[in-house]
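seq:
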Amino acid sequence: MCTRSVTAFSEGLHEISGHAFVDASGEGDLAWFAGASTRYGNHHMINVGSLGTRFGGVAADNEVSAEALTEAIRAAESHGVKGLTEKAYLVSTGPEFGTRESRHINSAGQLGWADVESGRTTIDSVALGAWGVEWHDWKTFRSTFKAPLGGTAYGIPLSCLRSVDTPNLFAAGRTADGDEQAGASLRVMGTAFSTGQAAGVAAAHLAQDGSKLDATKVRTSLRSQGAAIDIEDLR
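struct:
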C-alpha cells in the first residue's frame, strides 16, 4: 500500500499529491490517517508528559526534586493530611502540556535498545543518536536516565524510519520506531533534527528513483550535506 495524496485543511481543504511523504507531526497523525500500521507507546507503556512550572515561597535550602516532593506528599497523607499547606505558591506554568511519546510507525526494522548496547552497526545508518534512555514513569512519577554504552553515540538505521506496510512513508522524531528504551532516546529534539533530515533525503530519493530505495545513495547525499551518520564521523 502506498499513499498518493494527503488532504489538508488550511483556509479550506487542499489535496496534496506526492510520490513520498514524511510524518514529522510528532503524533504520527499522517501515518494514522493514511491507514499505515502504527501503535501507541510500547506494550502499554508510555513516556509520561509534563508541564513546566515555577513556584515561589520555597526556602532556598529546600530540596524540590520530584522524588522529594513525592515523599513529602506521601508522608503528609500517612498522617492524615489531605493536602500540603506550605507557603509555596504557583508563579507560572508553560503554555501547554509537553508530550514525550505518542504514536510510532511500525517500521521495516525497529531499533531496539539491545542493538544500541551491543554496539551493533548497520550499513543503512542515516543518523546518530547520543541521548540516553530518559524515562518518566506514569505509575511512580519517577524519572530515570540510562546513557548509551560507553557514553557514546549510536547509529540509527534507515529501516526504523520507513513504514512496514506503506513503503513511501517515512517517520522522523518520536514517531520513528524504537522499542520502549530506544524510543525514549530517539524522541529528543537533537535526534529529531537528524532523523528529519534523513527521512527527507530518503523520501526525495524514493520519489526520484521510483519504488527502489538505495540506502547507499541516501547516505552519500547526507554526507554531502555534512551529516554525521557513523560513529567514525565523530572522531
